[in-house]
Each structure stands twice: as C-alpha cells, then as structure tokens.
Amino acid sequence: MKEVNMYYSGYIKEQYCFEDENGKRYCFKKANNSLVYEYDLRNNTYVGTLFKVRYFVVSVGDKDELILSDLTFPKRDLVMKQAR
After folding, report:
1. How far, CA to CA in Å, does 76 sit from each of 32, 50, 81?
2. Could you give the 3-state DSSP secondary structure of residue 37?
3. Nearest 10 degrees: CA dihedral of 74, 20, 37, 16?
4. How far, in whole angstroms, is CA 1 from its chain's centroid?
5. What's the pLDDT score for residue 76?
6. Starting at the edge strand that comes first in sequence, how are the strands of the sheet with 50-60 ordered?
7. Is the CB of residue 16 less than 8 Å from the CB of residue 41?
8. Which of 9, 78, 80, 81 has its CA 20 to 30 A from that of 62?
9. pLDDT category, 27, cuts 50, 70, 90?
10. Which one of 3.40.1000, 1.10.3110, 2.40.50, 2.40.160 gives the CATH number of domain 2-72?
C-alpha cells in the first residue's frame, strides 16, 4: 500500500482525482465505498482539501490501476489548497 498527502480535485469523468504537492494527478476508478459516502466524494464538499491518501496499485494487463483504500486528514490542521 502506498501513502501520499494529496489535495482532492473532485469527481472527474467517473474517477476520484487527487493532486500531490508537486502537481502530479492521481485518478482512481475504484474506491472503498465507505469513503465515497463518508467524504461525499461525488460532490464538491472537499475539493481543495488535503488528505492523507492510502492506495493500492494493481497491474491489469499492461497498465497499472489505482485503487483508493483510505482517506484521513493529515495530523496538521486541515489545510485548504491556496487559489492559484
């Protein structure tokens, strides 16, 4: 399992998208259902919010698929992404 701090970008093209602190985007087609409802990920409630994201990488044919496993708020105070 991998763990990275990332900002939630939103539910885009049926994927849960996040961006790390370097601007790299991670999109998850699959997610733990409890996270989808607990954090209301299909709405914009947490867009721009920093999460500690835990996920798995699974090889499917010649591609890697990311599976969102867990979300928590980092130990520091809740941080909202600055407007660019």
Report:
1. 24, 10, 14
2. helix
3. -170
4. 14
5. 57
6. 25-28, 15-20, 2-12, 50-60, 63-72, 30-31
7. yes
8. 9
9. very high
10. 2.40.50
